[in-house]
Amino acid sequence: MLLIEDKLYQKIYTKLNKNIIEITNSKRTIVNEAVKDLVEGGGKKLRPFLMFLAASFGDDYDKDKLIQLGSGIELLHMASLVHDDIIDDADLRRGKESAQKKFGKKEAVFIGDFLLSKTFDIFFDYLDIDVLKKMNKHLRLLCEGEIEQSEKRYELQIGVRDYYRRIRHKTALLFALSSYLGGYVSGIRGKKLNILYKLGLEIGMAFQIQDDLLDFEGDENNTGKVLARDLKEGIVTLPVILLMGKNEYNDKYQIYNKNVLDESVVNDIITDVKESDVLKESREILLVFIRRVEKYMDRLPNNRAKKKLKKLIELQVDRKF
C-alpha cells in the first residue's frame, strides 16, 4: 500500500518488491507463497525509503547498493512480522492470511528464519565488520523488546517510560538503523551520521505511537488488522497505559491486572479509551516526537530529500494505515 504520492517513493517501492521476490526465490513453494503474500499485502516500505532519503545527504549515492540494502532491511522487518504472528497467534497480516495460519506454526518459524538468512546474505555482501556489529546489536535489542512485551502481557499497570523503552527496542531502532545505513554507505560520518540516526529513532517512536492510535481509531479495511488487536492479545499500548494512569480507571480494572482479559472486559476498556481523553493525550505525545524529528531535520542541509522527509512526517501524523 503506497504511503505517499511521490515518484521516488513509488519507484523504490516497485523495485524493492521485485527484488525481494527475486532474491528470496526458493525450491520450497511455501516460502515463495509466503513472500508473495507479504509483498502483495502491501507494507509501506517506510524503512527502506528512509534509508534512501538519508543517503541523499551523502556524496556517494549508489542506487543499486541501496536497493539491495533496502531489501535487506525490509526482509528483516518481514521476518519479524512472521515471527510476531506466531507469538500472537494472528490470523491476518496485511489483510491476508498470516503465514502461521496458512502454513502452520512450525513452517512459519522456518519461513521467518529463511528471510533472516537472506537478510544477512545481503548485509555481509555490502557492509563492513563494524557496521555488521552495530546491526547485530540492534537486532539483539529488537528481540529483547519483543521478549519484554511478551513478559508483560496483560500487565495493565506499566509506566509510560517502560512503554517508551519497549517501543524503542522493538520498533524505533530499526528505523534508526535504516537512516544510519543510508547515511553510512553514502559516505557520511561523524555528527551528521549521528543526526540521521537520531532522526530515524524519533521517526520510529512516532510511527509506533501512531500505530497504537490506529489500533483504536483505524479502519480494519485500511490497517489490515483487527481493531484493538493488541489489547485483545494482552499487549498494553499508550492509550491504555494513560487510561490506567487515571485513578478512576485504575481502580476499575485493578482486579484484572496480569490476568487474561475476557471479551466483556476488553470491550469495556475499548469504550473507556474512546470516551475518555486518552486518545487526545496520546496524539499530543505523538506530536512531541514529531517535534523532535523536526529538530533533527532542521540540522540537515536543505535539498530535495529534506523536502521529502518533511512531507513524510506530515503524512505520518494523519496516516490511516
Describe the structure using short key phrases.
321 residues; mainly alpha; Farnesyl Diphosphate Synthase; two-stranded antiparallel ribbon; 16 helices; 2 strands; 1% strand
Which structural class do you get from the secondary structure elements?
Answer: mainly alpha
Mean pLDDT: 92
Are there runs of 5+ residues with pLDDT below 50, and where? Answer: none
Lateral strand order in the biggest sheet: 1-2
What is the number of domains? 1
Q: Give the CA-CA distance, first to last residue.
A: 9 Å
Q: Provide the gyration radius in Å.
A: 20 Å
Order of helices and strands: HHHHEEHHHHHHHHHHHH
Using the coordinates shown, work out and report the CATH topology.
Answer: Farnesyl Diphosphate Synthase
Give the count of helical stretches.
Answer: 16
Kindly state the percentage of residues in helix: over 70%
The major pleated sheet works out as: 2 strands, antiparallel
CATH superfamily descriptor: Farnesyl Diphosphate Synthase
- CATH class division: Mainly Alpha
Strand content: under 5%
Q: Total number of β-strand segments?
A: 2
Q: At CATH's second level, what is the architecture?
A: Orthogonal Bundle
Shape: globular
